[in-house]
Design brief:
Blueprint (H helix, E strand, L loop, with lengths): L1 E4 L4 H10 L7 H9 L3 E7 L2 E10 L3 E9 L8 H15 L8 E3 L5 H8 L23
Parallel strand pairs: 4-5
Antiparallel strand pairs: 1-2, 2-3, 3-4
Amino acid sequence: MIEIQYQITEQEYNNIRKNINWREYDSERVKEALKNTKYLVKAVDEGKAIGMARAISDGIYNTILDVAVCKEYQNKGIGMNLMKELLDLIKKDLPQNEKATIFLIAENEQAEKFYHKLDFMKVPTEEVGSGMIKIIKNI
């Protein structure tokens, strides 16, 4: 049975990323990233971390990152359950009659369809402008 937990180790984080062919990060960078994570959910099967989702937040704006499920567990509803739990954690922190803005980047059209099922909208919309990104490198 898949269990949801709320902490992850640097090793588990990188193991999940490696399983789906995402870049692994240096342990110190992962430790810092996890320290700055406000919300985190992890899926565990028989003691093994098999999925994760996390968000950073300033209390008003939230960015969802690292939504990942190991290959052999994909298409079984685990990612959806992780996202629902993560969104519930964000909502529980909201003061009464307040709202939160949640950002994320969908990697591809399949991911867009996945997030659309959770009521995420492509931008721009009538309410918000288009998103932008800049990647900087220290070479």
